[in-house]
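FORM 12-B: Structure-to-Sequence Request
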């Protein structure tokens, strides 16, 4: 299983830690999805790459499988 990273700054989740400003490893989807974000400003490095958000908590994600209720953006 690949590691999943959450940006400590904006909450984006991804499998590519080099794409986010302040990555930290998340053990599984329950560590981050469904929680309320304190910040809503997305890191500049991820703005163009975010294709999904969670329909439950609004967390942005690079891949659909990284959130519990994925909705396609755009």
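FORM 12-B RESPONSE
SEQUENCE OUT:
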């Amino acid at each position: 299983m690949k590691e999943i990273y959450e940006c400590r700054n904006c909450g984006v989740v991804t499998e590519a830690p080099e794409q986010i400003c302040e990555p930290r490893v998340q053990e599984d989807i329950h560590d981050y999805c469904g929680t309320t974000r304190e910040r809503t400003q997305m890191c500049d490095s991820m703005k163009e790459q975010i294709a999904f958000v969670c329909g439950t908590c609004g967390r942005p994600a690079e891949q659909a499988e990284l959130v519990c209720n994925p909705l396609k953006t755009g």
